[in-house]
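Write out this protein's structure.
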Amino acid sequence: MSGLRVLVGCKRVIDYAVKVRVKPDKTGVVTEGVKHSMNPFDEIAVEEAVRLKEKKIASELLAVSCGPSQCQETLRTALAMGVDKAIHVEIGAKEFETMQPIHVSKILAKIAQEEKSDLVILGKQAIDDDCNQTGQMTAAILDWPQATFASKVEKNNGGLDVTREVDGGLETIKVKLPAVVTSDLRLNEPRYATLPNIMKAKKKPLTKKSAADYGVDLTPRMEQISVEDPPVREAGSKVESVEELLAKLKEKGLV
């Protein structure tokens, strides 16, 4: 069997180290002038794809990002990490604000079919919306097996053995290819792109597409009513004894 053709999703999100601020009109969060980077779970997905190529399990890696023109920087990072080519599905700022996982899933599924991908690796969730839906929806649209929350991926004869992080501990499942895998935090530690590889990435193919090219309608299915800051925690108070603690709990009707 020749090497796998792997598709990896790369979402551009507000950098994990930035303190997110809600817009005064409560319609969303402030993104202008804020540092963005690749979603950390997607970085792990890219790293896993690159490792599969280094082990000669994968033969070609394709990164896909849906969003505004700045997503090309995110894709260049993936190319510098070792991905072979990229597709940027450009979405206008206004449409991008209301874009939902179902839209991204439909685009990824269409690209996976067109590119004859054997494996789709996505981050388990994005740190901006925490939806944790795109991998599952992509698998459903393609009607492929899915292995979500992967902390270990190994090739077996005709498929993959995937160790998953579940509430009760770890679960190992076998999936046949083609399949969709979503990466958990402990799958690997992503590499830093070296300067020579960043320079080489500039010469790698990056194709620009639109949602219409894949026949995907970006009409939102849901309306976001309001975005709020989490409530501020009240200051705690010290007590001198167990008796005083019980008295305070009774006062607040907690016991």
